[in-house]
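Researcher: Here's the sequence for the chain we discussed earlier.
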Amino acid sequence: MSQPEPRTRLDARYSHPDAEAVPWSVAVTRLATAPVFWLSTVRPDGRPHVTPLLAVWLENALHFCTGADERKSHNLHANANCVLTTGDNALDRGLDVVVEGRAVPLTDESSLRRIADAYAGKYGPDWRFEVRDGAFHGSGGNVARVLRVAPTTVFGFGKGTYSQTRWRFDAV
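Model: Thanks. This is the structure I predict for it:
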């Protein structure tokens, strides 16, 4: 599946005069290699909820898993809009990336197998899942549903030479 090319714009209001827009390929590399993401969802009563999690970039989207009884799962069932964030704690280097989109459950077992392989490839053998019945099955009988977040808008915050790049996808 080819990577859709987003519309790219540097926001000069929040960028150093010498800054340039970050190429989408740089953001994709960051999404593919980042070890930890922060998922922001909204509780049914409107309060925010943020939690760290592991995710893999595959087929133009971020994928993560959650147990059916977890707070993030309940939140996304009521409101699929979410944000996934990753970055560095350094002020003078790196790129922080914020992905906005909708979390869509996946149950197709061929897709789930590719995602399970991506988890094991990225995070190692402790993160190998068995795929059956449209879900991930882990050690100890844990079952997790898998969600896909295709980006609608992505922000990249460059540090060192400060910049704010926005990537928008045609579906928005």
